[in-house]
């Protein structure tokens, strides 16, 4: 998950302390958070904290885990997508549809909830499939391209198995959408998508998850699919050189020198993400290396902002210190600080997330980084929270 790397230098610095109650919760998982992340201005301040409540599913016993596409389609005009799903499987559920809110003032205020038509209509057909929207990009022509994960819920409430991923285009700021079309011919999941150098680049994991969502065979590969016509058609450019056994989740971004970088999660080692880089737009890739994350990372989301790089997600799923929403900082995108917890786990699983640079279309105002994440309020039923970085 990435935007073009931004170079605006932050002008405000705060010292990140800790809310007393949440420090008590965190005491068994970490020492004091004296890291470079502590120099950020984070709103709400003094994380870990409750965040800004964006979607309150607790009043209707609903859940919003997976599907947090974000896009700024014009100066200060944003769409923030989120799932509206059932409480089945303790809330760890894909039984539902996508909705979104619109902001016309850079995220200060938001519209009422709006259903995403294709997703809602697919759910209402009761055909055992639902559509979650994890990523969106904006093209140079001003079109929004939205990517759908097509979930098979015919036998369980979970997202998997996966069908062929789809994409859809809006030329009017999300008011109307084109008929969704396949991104590729292979069943699987588009984990990330970026817009660089006049083309869309999508990171697809060719694994239909009929067995499980992580890689188990040589046929399970990460692929780069690209579109040079604004999302109308896609072609496969390359297969990335990852060992995919026990791997899943991926993130794609751009380093300061313009190289692409792709990360994948290793469920057997949550402290280290595999990564590879490309200097030619994803045609060829470097030898795979690893980046270390002291407090673990799962479902990683990578972005460059204000001269630094950020990685956020869940602090792992296994062992001590797992389950919290965490944010890491790096000067180069490969060597990471000790991280700062944004929200401590209260109950079940959450911390599926995404982020976007807001303000990049206006040179007269400073950029801000919006982070959106799910947080479990009961069992694994989740609300949706926001944080801002300046």
Automatic annotation (TrEMBL):
InterPro entries: Sialidase, Sialidase_sf. Residues 196-345 form the Sialidase domain. The keyword Signal applies. Pfam families: BNR_2 (PF13088). Keywords: Signal. Residues 1-32 form the signal peptide. The keyword Signal applies. PANTHER family: BNR/ASP-BOX REPEAT FAMILY PROTEIN (PTHR43752), BNR_ASP-BOX REPEAT FAMILY PROTEIN (PTHR43752:SF2). This is Sialidase domain-containing protein.
């Amino acid at each position: 998950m990435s935007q073009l790397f931004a170079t605006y230098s932050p002008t405000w610095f705060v010292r990140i302390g800790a809310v007393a109650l949440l420090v008590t919760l965190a005491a068994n998982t970490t020492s004091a958070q004296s890291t470079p992340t502590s120099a950020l201005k984070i709103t709400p301040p003094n994380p870990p904290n409750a965040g800004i409540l964006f979607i309150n599913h607790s009043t209707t016993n609903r859940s919003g885990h997976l599907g947090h596409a974000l896009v700024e389609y014009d100066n200060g005009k944003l769409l923030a997508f989120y799932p509206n799903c059932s409480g089945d499987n303790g809330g760890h559920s894909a039984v539902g549809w996508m909705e979104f809110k619109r902001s016309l003032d850079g995220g200060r205020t938001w519209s009422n909830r709006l259903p995403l038509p294709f997703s809602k209509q697919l759910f209402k057909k009761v055909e055992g499939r639902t559509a979650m929207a994890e990523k969106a990009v904006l093209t140079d022509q001003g079109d929004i391209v939205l990517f759908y994960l097509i979930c098979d819920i015919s036998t369980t409430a979970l997202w998997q198995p996966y069908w062929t991923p789809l994409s859809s285009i809006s030329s009017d700021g999300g008011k109307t959408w084109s008929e969704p079309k396949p991104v590729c011919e292979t069943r699987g999941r588009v984990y990330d998508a970026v817009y660089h150098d006049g083309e869309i680049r999508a990171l697809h994991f060719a694994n239909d998850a009929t067995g499980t969502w992580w890689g188990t065979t040589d046929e399970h590969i990460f692929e780069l699919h690209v579109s040079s016509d604004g999302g109308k058609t896609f072609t496969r450019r390359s297969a990335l050189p990852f060992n995919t056994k026990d791997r899943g989740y991926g993130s794609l971004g751009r380093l300061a020198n313009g190289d692409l970088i792709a990360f994948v999660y290793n469920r057997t080692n949550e402290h280290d993400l595999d990564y590879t880089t490309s200097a030619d737009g994803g045609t060829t890739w470097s030898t795979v290396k690893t980046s270390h994350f002291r407090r673990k990372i799962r479902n990683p989301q990578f972005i460059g902002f204000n001269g630094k790089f950020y990685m956020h997600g869940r602090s792992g799923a296994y062992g001590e210190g797992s389950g919290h929403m965490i944010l890491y900082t790096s000067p180069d995108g490969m060597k990471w600080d000790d991280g700062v917890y944004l929200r401590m786990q209260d109950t079940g699983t959450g911390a599926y997330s995404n982020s976007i640079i807001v303000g990049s279309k206006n040179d007269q105002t400073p950029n801000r980084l919006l982070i959106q994440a799910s947080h479990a309020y009961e069992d694994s039923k989740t609300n949706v929270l926001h944080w801002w970085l300046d």
